[in-house]
Amino acid sequence: MNIRTDILLRVYIAFGMIVLLAFAVLYKLVDVQIVEGKKWRSMADSLSTRFANVEAARGNIYSVDGSLLATSVPEYEVRMDMLAGGIEKDDVFYEKVDSLAAKLSSFFGDKSKKQYSRMLREARTERARYLLLKRNVTHTELKEIRKFPIFNMGRYKGGLISVHQNKRILPFQTLAARTIGYKNKNVQPVGLEGAYSAYIDGESGKRLMQRIAGGVWMPVNQDIEIAPKEGADIISTIDINMQDVAQRALKNQLITSDADHGCVILMEVATGEIRAVANFSKVREGEYKEQFNYAIAASQDPGSTFKLASYMALLEDKKVDTSTLVATEDGTYRIPGHTIRDSHGGIGTVSVKRAFEESSNVAIAKLINAAYQNDQEKFPAHLYDWGLNKKLELQIPGEGQPVIKNPKNRSWNKKQTLPQMAYGYEMQITPLQMLAFYNAVANDGRYIAPIFVREIRRLGNTVEQFKARVINEKIVSDETIKKAQELLEAVVLNGTAKSLASPLYKIAGKTGTAQVADANKGYRVDKKYQASFCGYFPADNPKYSLIVVVNNPRKGTYYAASVAGPVFREIADRVFASDINMFDPLKEQKFTGSLKLPEAKAGERKATQAVYKAFGIKALFASNSDYISLDTNKGVVSQEVKITEGLVPDVSGMGLKDALYVAGNSGLKVLVRGSGKVVRQSLAAGTSVQKGLPIILELE
Fold first, then answer.
1. DSSP characters for 566-602?
2. pLDDT of 190
3. How far apart are CA 432 and CA 445, in angstroms?
4. N or C, which end of the chain has less CB nearby within 10 Å?
5. What is the pLDDT of residue 244?
6. Per-residue confidence at 685, pLDDT binned at 50, 70, 90?
7. Residue 543 three-state SS
8. Distance (Å, rounded) from C-alpha 324 to C-alpha 528?
9. SS3 for 109?
């Protein structure tokens, strides 16, 4: 064999060994990834752990009168570890699995016994460690589930896993729902829930989780490693009783008028605190729901309610006085390319005061045109100085941007814009922005931004307090303010709103009937109107300002005095009757007599003990039950509140939060009326409980 042949032979042998080695490596890769892959992935999963966030219970939202507007109640996700210590042996599991299936079927009613049995057996075969049994389980239901076969073997042996969650509920359901708002994943936050989530959310806890086969994460321990911290409470400015009155009055009028939508805002004059906000949209014939916050977000032509600002500019510049005469002629006023009309025809030559009372478009258009035609920047300059072109910077998101034109805008028409702005067109203002301006007139010229939140508290301690921000300390002179107030009173005494006058108190305000432009068709096709009334009461000592807006009423008239006016009057009547501070004779009375110990609501024993101890009051707590009621007529003596499974609990005397917790955990569906403490319950204490049965709690 020559040398060349020997070299080639060696090369072939080496190449063959390399090929064999490559095949061996490839075979092992296939074996590891496919044949033994499940085994190794399972082992890798079992070695993977991480800390997961545990959601904290969100803080409560309260109304200004202490009623609970939003709170969190516990809910659970119930799962099962099919390899738990007590059922490791097949004989133990299969001996009791059918009994467990029967209990689950009977309790939840969503699957048959056979279906539950098959599901549990298949999960056992697959060695499932985190089998989902049911979501949205209440605390009371969980207590019952723990007694089921297998699960009653104990916390770790029976394989029952309960994952605590928090469910957000609104005790008053639709009352102020849009203002309360919500915060959901992947959804733009709304209302107070969204705006104050940094406070309400609290601090998340930490729980050690283990990844098991299939990529599922399950808790390593039943207990949470780092407990979450509850969120802070929000004290809103909403008065739940006023909110109820506002919603009812608005909805009834919308149904009567078959309108597209409407809103109401009630505001306290001196503080800027919003007492009620209602927004309703038509969803079908005769049915309205809160779907959009028109009160703060809907920028639109305000119509005749804006005439107040026009007259104030004229009065401030000494262009007119309330006695100045203006000719309305036949109720028309031609400007290049457009004719301005009075809806009820001409009223002849009248005083400025009378023109305002009768809401003459012709009068204010002529007056503004004559006063500012040669200096067109001066009129919008007043509006800018007052701050009407800027947002109010509210505490909740979604405020619409006001649009007040000036001659620098491209859309400014030297012949048309000025006279049409005079009576509330060619601009965009939200109902709340309009109300804030009227509130400034009621407040003797002090223009303040409305607020929805008064205070933030954590564990009963004040974290932050809020007061209205002053936008303009004095929008016009005292002389102009006084004349503006007189004009608004005259509208109700002698003008378009005289049907709203009350014999008990004075109302000041202005009607507004505006044609609404269609985005595509303009004003002339398919005419739609918006009726509004904005004002305050009592006019001689203003306490509340109020605006009502009704969009596109189809039945009956569309004029503001007949559509928006009755809503204003109904709300004002109810508020006046319920606010004792508005009755002067009662303010000076002082009552004396024997002092009583402070009353306490029935509720959780530990919390009650802590409060009395903090005040240094000796109380006799003979009961060891979780919930107690107190008799303060004979010292402070506690009485046990018995809570028996399967029976309706006695929640009389409790505050709303405790009553919700106790009644809800008994399997009852709670409906609430009023505020304060529970004085009546629709189901007698001690009667049998049927799951989901409604119980009405009346609070005073």
1. HHHHHHHHHHHHH-GGG-HHHHS--------PPP--B
2. 80
3. 17
4. N
5. 93
6. confident
7. coil
8. 34
9. coil
Q: What are phi and psi of 554, to 5 degrees?
A: -100, -30
**Is this structure's pTM higher than 0.85?**
no
Give the closest residue to 142 by CA, choosing from 164, 111, 171, 157: 164
> What SS3 class is residue 340?
strand
Residue type (1 letter), 132: L
What is the reported pLDDT for 156? Answer: 76
- Is the model's pLDDT at 31 over the cut of 90? no
For residue 276, which of 314, 309, 303, 249 has the smallest C-alpha distance?
249
- Distance from C-alpha of 255 to C-alpha of 277, rounded to nearest angstrom: 18
Q: Is residue 12 classed exposed, middle or buried when 0-12, 13-18 and 19+ CB atoms within 10 A define those classes? A: exposed
Q: Do 528 and 518 contact (CB within 8 A), yes or no?
A: yes
Q: At what angle are helices 307-316 and 378-386 packed, to 10 degrees? A: 110
Tokens of 107: 């309790």
* CA–CA gap between residue 605 and residue 638 (Å, rounded): 9
CA–CA separation, 402 vs 384, rounded Å? 11
In what helix (H) or strand (E) does residue 606 lie, and over which residues does it extend?
A: helix 605-614
β-strand partners of 697? 672, 681
Contacts 24+ apart (CB under 8 A), 474-480: 474/445, 474/446, 475/312, 475/385, 475/386, 475/440, 475/445, 475/447, 476/312, 476/315, 476/316, 476/386, 476/445, 477/316, 477/445, 478/444, 478/445, 479/315, 480/312, 480/315, 480/316
Domains of the chain: 51-232 (3.90.1310.10), 240-580 (3.40.710.10), 603-699 (3.30.10.20)
Model confidence band, residue 591 (pLDDT cutoffs 50, 70, 90): very low
Indicate the SS3 state at residue 300.
Answer: strand
Residue 427 above 80 pLDDT? yes
Is the predicted pLDDT of residue 525 greater than 70, yes or no? no
Sign of CA dihedral 455, 457, 461, 463: negative
Backbone φ, ψ for residue 406 (5° rounding): -145, 170
pLDDT level of residue 592 (50, 70, 90 thresholds)? very low
Query: What's residue 307's pLDDT?
Result: 97
Residue 239 tokens, joined: 């008065």
pLDDT digits (tens, 9 = 90+) for 248-297: 999 999 999 999 999 999 999 999 999 999 999 999 998 999 999 999 99
pLDDT digits (tens, 9 = 90+) for 195-247: 888 888 876 667 677 776 655 666 777 666 676 677 889 999 999 999 999 99
Beta carbons within 8 Å of 625's beta carbon, 6+ residues apart: 605, 640, 641, 642, 643
pLDDT at 684: 82
